[in-house]
Amino acid sequence: MRSTTNASADRKNPSVLHRNAPLSVEGRRRLVERCQTRPIAHVAAEMGISRACASKWVNRYREFGELGLLDRPSTPHHQPTATPAEMVTRIETLRRDKKWSSRRIALELSVEGTRISVRTVSRHLAHLGLNRRRFLDPTGESNRAPLRIVARWQGHMVHVDVKKVGRIPDGGGWRAHGKGSDQAKAVERAKAAGARAGYVYLHSAVDGFSRLAYTEALTDEKASTAIGFMHRARVFFAAHGIGHINRIVTDNGSCYRAKDFAKVLHGARHQRINPYTPRHNGKVERYNFDPVRGVPLRPNLDQRAAALTSSRSVERALQLPSTSHCRWKPATREQAPRRCHQRHGLIQLVHRSRRPSVSLRSPNSLLKD
């Protein structure tokens, strides 16, 4: 069954004419009618086509009638190297029943004794209208069960990312005071004079198991900056009981694709996510959400106004608490906290004993004045 959503079938439709086609099916019918009483050469010159072209359509009409005026398929009558029909049926069966990819189908057919390329399987799936997973379901669903990315121990997966955040001008901008206000006009005049608030780059590393986070506000996102950040993040994690990092998960940024970034691995596996799928690095992407907005998930009016008018917007955002909790498990029982409230750049540990709570501020996590 051919899917109506398959775009490749529309491209192969012979009834679709190019924009410079002089004759359509109706034009060919008019050509034949005029040639009944007039010479073919005169009608061809009148319609702007060659005599051979006009004679071709007249002869087809005389031989096949109205069907002769339709376009014929360009598929050759004999194809010695074509895939057998039984093989195409087998490909369709594996796709519908197993929901396998083209590579998996090609591998299965090679095990059965038939060597076929992955590209050939993909071509036949596109011709059958089964090249997308959602085409297998009549409702158009993807038929994919999302799997959770779960870290099994401390240091199993450390998610790293960089977020570019713009600074808020002194006193706030038009979002806080409105367009056309005196403060907004003052900001525009400062821009015209050459003043720029600039950007800050938040480098963050989040342990996938304990949700222990480390953030630094740096000046750029170069490879050398990312390498230095990872060295300091390792020291921070080691101080909190995570001595070995098994896997470092990043996106495909230029700083992470650099060859020198392999120096910070120290035996860890560097896993880059698929392009345009930030959900594969979702722990640190979700962690970046609060500093970007500068306010908690459910802020009150005072917090929102303070975040929009503060000249130290990033510093204020880094100090606001988050709603998530971490499951940090220290190396010794004496250090075991009952709860661990995660903050951006500020990690607060609440111990089981009656001692006052200890706050550990990560180095370079806040902007310098």
Structure characteristics:
369 residues; 9 strands; 5-stranded mixed sheet; 15 helices; 4-stranded antiparallel sheet
Structure write-up:
There is one protein chain. With 369 residues, the protein is α+β, with helices and mostly antiparallel strands. The chain contains 15 helices and nine strands. α6 packs across α7 (118-128). The radius of gyration is 33 Å and the shape is flat. The protein starts with 6 loop residues before the first helix and ends in an 8-residue tail after the last strand. 23% of the residues are buried.
SSE topology sketch:
Elements: H1 7-11, H2 25-35, H3 40-47, H4 51-64, H5 85-98, H6 102-111, H7 118-128, E1 158-166, H8 174-177, H9 182-192, E2 199-207, E3 213-218, H10 223-239, E4 247-250, H11 254-257, E5 269-272, H12 282-287, H13 289-293, H14 301-309, H15 313-319, E6 321-325, E7 337-343, E8 346-351, E9 358-361
Parallel strand pairs: 1-4, 4-5
Antiparallel strand pairs: 1-2, 2-3, 6-7, 7-8, 8-9
Helix pairs in contact: 2-4, 3-4, 5-7, 6-7
